[in-house]
Specification:
Strand content: over 45%
Structural class: mainly beta
Amino acid sequence: QVHLVESGGGLVQPGGSLRLSCAASGLDFSTSAMGWFRQAPGKQRELVAHISSAGNANYVTSVKGRFTISRDNANTTIYLQMNSLRPEDTAIYYCYAVPGNYQGQGTQVTVSS
């Protein structure tokens, strides 16, 4: 059974940083592409960052230069380093894995003064 467990969310002031983690189990991590999407109240789900099994990363334009996605195959974990956070980054952040379209339960990120 596949499990994706996110952690690291919280409340941060604008301009601050957070690092999200997603621990994966039950899947072939090294051959899975993974990433993060977010869902804010009243807004459509948005793909934030994606990392291939080879480690190639892609980002939505609004987070380029501020967010960095990475993966640790030895520990079957991915990360999302988020810097220079803005109020519009407030959302529930979910990690996902493909193939299989698995997703975690989400972690809340709130950017507010």
